[in-house]
């Protein structure tokens, strides 16, 4: 008999879909904010996967995938439990905003990072926001129950469907060797899970940049690094206008992950109807193909196109359409385009094309040396 899982008012019942609310926070206006929860539990025991979406209010493909996925028919063929949250941030969804009105930062950078909480917090420093506190509490439930996690997003208008693979970090302390072995085993499991999903794989930034950008505090980053749960971010192309083909391919990919995890019987489904890009080497994201001057950029490459170092990827023109001396913009490395920059008008420094380039960095790496100090520059807690 599967174990009972309770997320707010949603309580699993074997063989059924259960719906409920998880209380996230209270607004100053007295309104309570809840997250919608769906628990699909099989009659047969098995692993537990969390499927989360909608942390960015402009990204609507993920919720769609969950609404299509979670049917009684799936439950009848399932082993284990699916906990789904189609909107991790209703405050963003309501107003169609990437950054919701309750915080001034990317909400997908607010999950726990595993650092010790400062024993005495500086009272002059703003304490964590209600949303960050909510995610901390929800994360405790994820840690308690989840064996796997997928967090669904959309990348940019017209981008390909792909999955971001985070690097697995480990503590390089006195247990560095076993920690590294554990991280390598986790990275191998994650790799299998990503291959089961079957969409194009793009690695995240290398460790230093990854942490500088707070990506270790994304939903999947925190699940992977703090929870040590195989987890990834699925990026499903255009946000506001979900591409039905990508939604279908994400459904097939998700069911394939369930099969890989031993939660669903049957043959792996082919991933069709979307572009699958494999340049033959591992790739990581970069945002460095930037406009050198204020310009009109006319892309010569589209999402999914392979590029070679030195190849022209965009014509740069002035507003009258005359070529600029800096034209054309050229790729600096081999790789492929996973999304174009938005529109044709670019300020200097704007990313013109989002490229996946050859990844020279290992999938596993140590946390930076001073990462776990309670406060940057202070002694270790306990010292
Ligand atoms: Zn997103």
Structural class: alpha/beta
Largest sheet: 8 strands, mixed
The CATH topology of the largest domain is given as Aminopeptidase
How much β-strand is present in the residues? 25-35%
For this entry, what is the oligomeric state of its chains?
A: single chain
SSE order: EEEEEHHEHHEEEHEHHEHEEEEEEEEE
Q: Distance N terminus to C terminus?
A: 47 Å
C-alpha geometry: globular
Radius of gyration: 22 Å
- What ligands are attached or bound here? zinc ion
Number of domains: 2
CATH architecture of the largest domain: 3-Layer(aba) Sandwich
Task: Give the overall average pLDDT.
Answer: 95
Q: Fraction of residues in helices?
A: 10-25%
Please identify the top-level CATH class of the largest domain: Alpha Beta
Q: What topology, given as strand order, has the largest sheet?
A: 3-4-6-5-7-11-8-10
Give the total of beta strands.
20
CATH homology superfamily of the largest domain: Zn peptidases
**Tally of alpha and pi helices:** 8
Low-confidence stretches: 379-383
């Amino acid at each position: 008999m599967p174990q009972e899982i309770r997320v707010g008012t949603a309580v699993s019942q074997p063989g059924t879909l259960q719906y409920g609310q998880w209380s996230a926070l209270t607004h100053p206006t007295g309104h309570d904010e809840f997250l919608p929860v769906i628990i699909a539990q099989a009659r047969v025991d098995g692993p537990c996967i969390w499927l989360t979406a909608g942390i960015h209010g402009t990204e609507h493909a993920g919720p769609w995938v969950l609404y299509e996925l979670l049917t009684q028919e799936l439950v009848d063929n399932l082993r284990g439990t699916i906990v789904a949250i189609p909107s991790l941030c209703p405050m963003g969804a309501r107003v169609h905003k990437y950054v919701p009105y309750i915080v001034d930062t990317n909400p997908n950078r607010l999950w726990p990072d595993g650092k010790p909480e400062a024993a005495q917090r500086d009272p002059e420093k703003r304490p964590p926001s209600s949303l960050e506190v909510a995610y901390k509490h929800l994360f405790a439930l994820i840690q308690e129950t989840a064996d796997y996690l997928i967090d669904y997003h959309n990348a940019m208008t017209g981008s390909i469907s792909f999955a971001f693979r985070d690097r697995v970090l480990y503590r390089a302390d006195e247990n560095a060797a076993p920690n590294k072995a554990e991280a390598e085993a986790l990275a191998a499991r994650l790799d299998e899970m990503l291959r089961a999903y079957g969409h194009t794989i793009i690695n995240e930034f290398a460790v230093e940049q990854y942490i500088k950008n707070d990506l270790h505090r994304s939903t999947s980053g925190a699940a992977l690094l703090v929870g040590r749960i195989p987890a990834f971010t699925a990026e499903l192309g255009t946000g506001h206008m979900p591409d039905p083909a990508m939604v279908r391919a994400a459904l097939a990919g998700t069911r394939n992950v369930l099969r890989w995890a031993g939660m669903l019987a049957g043959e792996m489904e082919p991933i069709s109807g979307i572009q699958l890009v494999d340049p033959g080497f591992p790739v990581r994201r970069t945002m460095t193909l930037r406009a050198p001057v204020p310009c009109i950029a006319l892309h010569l490459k589209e999402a999914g196109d392979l590029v070679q170092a030195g190849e022209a990827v965009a014509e740069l023109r002035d507003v009258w359409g005359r070529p600029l001396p800096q034209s054309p913009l050229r790729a600096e490395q081999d790789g492929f385009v996973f999304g174009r920059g938005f529109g044709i008008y670019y300020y200097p420094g704007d990313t013109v094309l989002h490229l996946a380039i050859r990844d020279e960095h290992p999938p596993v790496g140590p946390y930076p040396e001073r990462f776990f100090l309670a406060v940057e520059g202070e002694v270790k807690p306990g010292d």
